[in-house]
Amino acid sequence: MLKLKKKIQLIDQHDKNYLYGGKFGGNFIPETLKKPVEDLTDLFKKLRHDKKFITERDYYFKNYVGSPTPFIKLHHLTKHLGGAQIYAKVVSKANGGAHKIYNAVVHALICKRAGKKYIVGDTGAGYAGKMLSMAAKKFGLKCKIFMGAKDIKRQKPNCDAMRQNGAEIVPVYSGSQTLVDAVSECMRYWVSNCDTTHMAVGSTVGPNIFIKICAWSTAQISRELIIQLKKEFGSIPKKLKLINCVGGGSSAAGFWNEFMDYDKKQVEFIGVEAGGPKNSKLHAAPLTNGSKLGILHGAAQYVIQDKDGQIGETSSISAGLDYPGISPLHCFLKDTKRARYTSATDEEALQAYKLVSKLEDLSPSLEPSHAFAEAIKIAPKLSKDTIICVNSCGDAKKDRSIIKKRLGYFK
Ligand SMILES: Cc1ncc(COP(=O)(O)O)c(C=O)c1O
Who lines ligand 1 at CB under 6 A? Predict the structure, then answer.
């Protein structure tokens, strides 16, 4: 069985070929990308230990992102379900409304250090794109966002925000017209423009350096949470469950990072993938459904594929989770058994949104609604001294039209 090494950051647990557990991740990239990827790897190796860079990052996390985000008890939901005490880390209160702002700010700072004026990125739910456009505006960079044509239609509020921030949205019409195609197109663009342009990948996917930068950035969430838990309980609770939705895996990696060395009997990690429409074979849950190892966007990972190894079709009500692959970090966490992965269907996520937004002053987007669905499932069966904390990592405003159509109202 694969093993996690103690006292080594999750992002650094790879071998010399950048493979986690000897099989996940790596840099499976064309010759033309080798040099820019190497240059970025060398630059980030220096920056992540550079005191000035870290001070700058922390300054903008505090004074621009609005860190720390709140940690609150969901009293009504707890009472309604009985059993475990339910809390939320309300990351959706970060500037822009989701965790994607951490990765975007760090990429913009790196772009400036690299002396580049152009930044490009991919987006699915539109949050990664909106945040990159915000960071570009903040730091005076010109920004281009690649987005699947299907996602442009279903995530209009975030597209409006990108345009208002001066970013150009490049619609992607190939394949499924969702995130997977947007990432591919963005990488293709970067190959021909890497001399002048920095590329940000919107989640913990892609060649190793992008996984590292993204997880290093979102780790801010668990740095804050550890302090907030100690303040609330005096120490880290004896029975703690950290529940997070998983698309590419950046919010979950950031939510769990600082807890990696705790025993899983004390701090359990639960990742919730998109189970797709009820009674449909389609989903976006490679870990839950036993998908095979394959290569996607330059990295080896469990990926939804057909018998010939072609990337399979996915379906999810949530654009942010609608991705056939999954971060190599989560493949590694699954195979080491440090994290447990499950899925929630579209309908379960909608019902979770309905219950949480009815009982609490919280309006989780469809992505974290998947995590709430799991909390709702397990809380009644757990003892009162169990603490569940859900990462409420996105705000539902972007999902207004989908929720209104499916539930008949939007709170
Ligand atoms: C609010 C929100 N949560 C979760 C996700 C899933 O991505 P990740 O697994 O990288 O956090 C997205 C992706 O766009 C998102 O916008």
Answer: 98, 124-125, 127-128, 203, 245-251, 320-321, 365, 367-368, 393-394
